[in-house]
Amino acid sequence: MLLRVIVVILGKNPSGKTNLPDRLFLIYNIKVHMDTKTTQGVTVHVSTNYLPDYSSPAQQHFVFAYKITIENNSEFTVKLLRRHWHIFDSNNEIREVEGEGVVGQQPVLEPGENHQYVSGCNLKTSIGKMAGTFLMERLVDGKQFQVTIPDFTLIIPYKLN
Prior knowledge:
By secondary structure, the chain is mostly beta strands. It is built from no helices and eleven strands. It is elongated and about 50 Å long. Mean pLDDT is about 85; it is low at about 1-30. About 0% of the residues lie in helices and about 60% in strands.
């Protein structure tokens, strides 16, 4: 997927040259990658973003946001009970995070519905990876099942060049 971002900088031309506009349009083509995985009719999409304003590379502190979309493509109403993450830093450090729901919620999804949330992750290096599962429950019969979250990379943009 290609996302076109247009940034408009408003203001007077500081150089005084007449060939430069008062408004400067900067166009960026940003390649947006979304990882997707489906388990038992539940599809999970993940997209990531580096947050330079919250990061401090000199102090080995890199902050990333990730957006998760959970789609219920099954024929059953499901509830997200728990999350379980493995966070891999490129310095061989591995963290494990477990807990109820996601960002304080345990969403219930009817067939055809989706739930979206944004969360974040701190790394000590500029490259890492996350992988995990959601524990879901079919409300019709109480059957619990694991939904795989696709592995996704956390990487600062200039490392991609």
